[in-house]
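A protein record in our archive is deliberately plain, so that people and models can read it alike. The tokens are whole numbers drawn from a learned vocabulary of local backbone shapes. For reference, a complete record is included directly beneath this paragraph.
>
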Amino acid sequence: MSPTLEMDLETVGSLLLLVAHDLRNPLSALHSNIGFIGSAGPGDDTDVRDALVDSQVSCDDLAHIINNLDLFGQALRETRHAEPLPMSAAAFARDVVSRCQRVAESHRLRLLFDERAVDPSIEAYANRELLGRALGNLVRNSIQHSPENSLVELRIVGPQADRASGEPARVQFMVCDQGAAIDTELGERVFTFDGQLMARGKGESRYSRGMGLLSARLAASASGASVACVPPPDGFANSFCLIVPVSAG
């Protein structure tokens, strides 16, 4: 008989964190070696250049999955995170979009964020690293599920105050795409464990690498924010929203 594994959630979380840590070491070496080969110059060989780009994108994808595995471990351990700090909403969005451009190019679509349309004085108030993971997961999910030559756009809306609840004003980071419309029966369940299990293999249900929508919710919650599906603007089929408190200052 095989032994029965009896572990509490905190132990499982700790093991996941160990696995994530162990995976980062060989990935770092692989990424460095690919970068070295690229810097040495592939010459005029188009196939070699394409292979290097594909390898770099694959390393980015693997790093993204490892980060989400780390998120699951932290969530199971109920890890306490650093205190939130104010940050420029526009600069934060620009950084996330910049990190996702290579994967967007590999999917042959446009990833757009018009920083000029955003009030530079808007400051989000959250844990920057975790908020970046949340927004990065939303953007990557939209990229993965969008057709070639389509558009994924990040917009910033707000800030808006909810006078009825008395909660602080919040700013919304909206990720809009032109992929297949999400299965309306799933609704907000796309951000849950069982929703992601149901979504596996169903394009309209938006499963993505590293359980992107679930990971977005976990990272958002840990950073003091939240996620939601919202009605898309004209020209788009889907819109996912990261809702973040703004700085009181």
Q: What stands out?
A: The chain is about 45% helix and 20% strand. Strands lie at 85-88, 110-113, 123-126, 151-162, 167-177, 226-229, 238-245.
